[in-house]
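Chapter review. Work through the record for Glycosyltransferase family 4 protein before attempting the end-of-chapter questions.
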Amino acid sequence: MNKLLYIGNKLSDHGYTSTSIETLGSFLEAEGFTVYYASSKKSKPLRMLEMIYMTFKYAKKVDYVLIDTYSTKNFWYAFIISQLCRMLKVKYIPKLHGGDLPSRIERSKFFSNLIFNNAFINIAPSYYLYEAFKNNGYTNLKYIPNTIELQLYPESVKTFEVPSILWVRSFAKIYNPIMAVKVFINLKKIYPEATLCMIGPKKDDSFEKTKRFAQKHKVEVTFTGKLSKEDWIAKSKDYNVFINTTHFDNTPISVIEAMALGLPVVSTNVGGIPYLLKHESNALLVSDDDTDEMTQQVNRLFTEQNLVQSITKNAKETVQSFDWEIVKKEWIDLLI
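Structure tokens for Glycosyltransferase family 4 protein:
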């Protein structure tokens, strides 16, 4: 089986959420691929240096270099490693991430062209990014969705008398965590016994701001910090609604996981979300940062008969296509 070097942010040991380099990487290893990784260094300069070192070390030993490619500072990791791959004559495959990546390729067109036009192929995990890249003139594209192992997500019985809200994401400005507390405050006026649990690691000062906001408004929010996948899946049994409050998004794994668990999803309708979720079909959608509308949509789950059942049934059907047992064929056909 082929050998791969996977370049990305392998930082779960430092308290961050596992990303594609860890999930897809482990899936590929289970299928018989040999996978080398860079980097798990917490320091960004050291991470970059290790990525460069590993690329030099393994360029002649691997068949492909996979590069997780984001829109922020990590974009420059992808640029440097992709050009190093060109110099060393090894095929590289950018795996596209992030709801704001279309803006990045327009802002940094010269550098984007050097990365994406010279790639063996670019992997878009959503039709949102696929269309954005196609519209920017990139033709060496393939859609392979993000993936989960459906068997790990048991559906539990929910009751819909009082909202028990679950939010799962890193605490970062782009994910707008404070909106979850604002929605919760509104819901408490209707349902005094409502609860909110927010799961995820700190990524910027959003965690402190969200916690202070909850304290200021005298609402009790459960903040768990980062949990393992097994632990947050177990925790989800105590909740009956999943909310996604993000400003930018692609195809968030946490939303796919919530759908697999049978939780009705209420989400902002941003970035790649409308390519995954359809309003009143497999989720309920609201405009970006529209707290009042999200409150109303959550409330509908407790006032409109049969709405939860139809949404969760359709959501369960949607996530079937993200199961690794289906998606793995696309990766194997590409890499062997």
